[in-house]
Amino acid sequence: MALSLGQKAGWGLADMGVVVFVVVKQLLVFAYLTSVLGVPVEIAGMATTGVLVFDMITDPLVGYLSDKTHTRWGRRAPWMIAGAVVMCVGMVGLFSVPAGLIGVAALPWVLGFFMIATLGFTMVAIPYGAMAGEITQDGRERSAMTAWRMGFASVGILVGGALIPGIAAGSGYSVAALTVTPLIIGAIWMSVFATRRAPKIETPSSVSPVRMMSLVFSNRAFVMLAVLYGVMTLAIALITAGLPFAAIYLVVDTGDTPLSGAAKALSVLSLMFASFTVGSILSQAGWVFASARLGKLGALVLGLCLYIVLLFGLYSVLPSVNVTAVAGMFVLAGMTNGSYQQIPWAMYPDLMDVTRRDTGEAIEGAFSAIWLFGQKAANAFAPLILGTILGAYGWVETTAGVAEQPAAALGALHWAVTLVPAGILALAIVGLIALYRPLERRALHVA
């Protein structure tokens, strides 16, 4: 049965709420620890990575339990409804540090609530990803669903990257987190409601956890794609983790460019994210078209190549006093990032179908868990890598938001958020062509 437009768009809507939290944890937590609470950059990186490693460990468990769940509302909906609330409670809590707790003394509070928030995120993200494989087996429908998902995700990026920092600067981080809580919960709950009549596999899986994981890992094409998606994510996560610092130290608005007024009103960071979001939204239909003409793999490789070119361009213009030029480049960055956002999420459900076809087992939750495992691993280690690089070059932590930084530290920040991600994306391209493509052709029986 074909999905209705409302069901495809409704499925995508949940990602608007999910991505708000993803942006918060990737963009703001590390910077909050080092620039507001005064935690040394190396310790902040290690602590953030520790929580996100915990997040990775919970993925297979939630995937297994969601495959086993049997309720009148289906296998996935109860997890998403409860997880949205848990995620928001943790997010508000981690930014609500009691007065007087600064430096390393604040870590137990922040990390405790961060763990709660990431557990809620897993409760939403794993079942949500599993739905992509069970509500349709049509590849074109999946591309359309993913385009809707990424369109709504772009709005989430705008909220998480532009609105929250602006509110946080004026009213505090906890107020900002509380302000977007209704948006997060509302988007996820409305998505569950919109897809309530979409086709679902209601019968819970009967296989053991060991057998479930064995079936997933026997799908070699899927495993390779998940690994390479993790590699791509590491590049993006390094950019995201470093962006708050780059907006402060590498883009200095002189007040005499067309967008200077917007930069002053929104902050440079918020303007960059707004520009990025515009590019991402504009690109979604284009990447659906490219996938249809070039194939999903060909379109993804094209997008990553363009992303590398864009990163070299950013390296050449930073540091910059022309906020308008940098904003224009971030529009282009959003357009190239659209390929990374959209296409892999349309590719991996096709590979889940292979296992269902060959074994008869519907274990989409297990596949979703392993898919997100690579992404979360990358997001976990990016703050550690960036913190280690900046710490090695003498980065200075502060509780005032801005501090005088050594020239060597600023130079390290410059190449760490441009050239290093470009190199990582190049490795991903090689892997897609040399390693993934032969496996995909065998799995999907492509001539």
Automatic annotation (TrEMBL):
Statement: the UniProt record of this protein carries the keyword Transmembrane helix: yes
InterPro entries in the record: MFS_2, MFS_trans_sf
Coiled coil start-end: none
UniProt cross-references to Pfam families, sorted A to Z: MFS_2 (PF13347)
Segments passing through the bilayer: 12-37, 43-65, 77-95, 101-126, 147-167, 173-194, 221-251, 271-290, 297-315, 321-340, 377-395, 415-436
Domain of life, source organism: Bacteria
KW Membrane (keyword) present: yes
Keywords: Membrane, Transmembrane, Transmembrane helix
Family label: Belongs to the sodium:galactoside symporter (TC 2.A.2) family.
Name of this chain's protein: MFS transporter
Organism in which the protein naturally occurs: Octadecabacter dasysiphoniae
